[in-house]
Model the fold of this input.
Amino acid sequence: MVEAGGGGSGVLVTNSDSGMRTSTYGFDVEQEGLLKPLMEEAVRELTDAGRFDSEMVLKIRQQSGAASAMGIPVRAGGKSVGMFCLLRNSKEDTFLDDSSGIYHLIADKVEVTIQNARLLKRLITERRWLEAVVQHSSDGVVILDRDGVVVGYNVTMSKLTGWNIGEAVGMPSHEVFPLSLEARPEHSTSLMRMGRRYFGERTEPLEAHLTSRSGQILEVEVTG
Done:
């Protein structure tokens, strides 16, 4: 984004509930240490008071020794969350005055990136919560992909069947967790086939027989 905007270096600072986050491009460690507090002060003005401080951009340019600088407010979710500062080091190079649209494009790209990062964080949090619920369930839980291959299962299922955690992952469910309906014990089936056939809108469990790794027949109830 720095090069696309015609800059030689750049600083992105965002402010969220988890605190300030700073990303830099084209600076050494000493310059980063000098610019970071200035950028954070400018971002606090922007996010807390809603005021864009152009004087702070001038201070950033002077502190960095750059020939020119441009500050671009960053928005996400309809509010200001940070600032992106582009700097040029050569007096002969100037920002593209006739291409101001590119800076709006950069700001939009930063906004999308921030929104995607927030979405990813929320998805990771929800997945960890779901995994915790599954692993601590007193019922045996098996997770399959669309082809009926085992993606995961919890500790209870491991104890029931004799398959250690992780051993059966990647294997067809009908091979590691073979089932037969209690009403038709002579016909073997699989979790995937049972799910497709019986658990459309059905909520009641099906009584079935599950064969463990050692060959023991277990009476179970299956829900989809």
In short: The CA atoms of residues 32 and 82 lie 17 Å apart. The longest helix spans residues 101-135. The first strand starts at residue 9 and ends at 16.
